[in-house]
Specification:
Length: 200
């Protein structure tokens, strides 16, 4: 007897080898593009141990690959942020945990994400970064409502300044101007003062 499920289109999950290839290409793109934003796709494929044809089969174009890379990076970052349980404790404590998570993120993520989103509209860029920025905005609002953070500066400005200074810390670390610990300490001290939350 023919059932409805027999007539429905097959929705098979991607095969495990296809998923491995896709993941390998994304990781290779992060590695290659962090060092050379203009690297061609053949180099990315070679680094992944795969052919350029396989890369195009998965992503269709350079733009498709970059979109996948950005979504991978933001997904990984969002997972780290969720694990930090930012809803617990005071807003100041949550901010410190957020900054610690941000500081532990590979600097390659920041460089590649900047390359991948270059030329995007402000709205598109904001949408891509929402999983990372929204939790920070929630901390800022909570801290201002509780009197822990200054209200002399708008919440949106504090959030934007936090992200910009975080990128600056990653950049100085990647250039060898600061060690990871120095960059982390400088970022934390600067932002706690900016927020009016005192020093460590």
């Amino acid at each position: 007897m023919t059932t409805v499920s027999d007539l429905a289109p097959s929705r098979r999950r991607p095969r495990s080898d296809a998923l491995r290839s896709r993941t390998a290409l994304i990781h290779a793109a992060i590695h290659v593009l962090a060092d050379d934003p203009d690297a061609d796709l053949a180099r990315v494929a070679t680094t992944a141990g795969l052919s350029r044809q396989t890369l195009y089969a998965h992503f269709g174009s350079r733009s498709g690959l970059l979109d996948a890379v950005v979504h991978h990076i933001t997904g990984e970052a969002a997972g780290l942020i969720r694990d930090a349980r930012l809803e617990q404790g005071t807003a100041r404590d949550a901010l410190v945990r957020y900054l610690d998570v941000f500081s532990r993120m590979p600097s390659a993520w920041t460089r590649v994400a900047a390359t991948a989103t270059e030329g995007q509209s402000s709205a598109d860029s904001a949408e891509v970064h929402r999983p990372v920025v929204d939790p920070l905005a929630a901390i800022v609002r909570r801290g201002q409502d509780a009197g822990e953070f200054t209200t002399d500066l708008p919440a949106a400005w504090l959030s934007a300044a936090t992200v910009a200074l975080g990128h600056a810390a990653h950049e100085q670390e990647s250039r060898g101007e600061l060690t990871r610990e120095q960059a982390r300490a400088a970022l934390r001290t600067t932002l706690l003062r900016l927020y009016g939350a005192g020093d460590d």
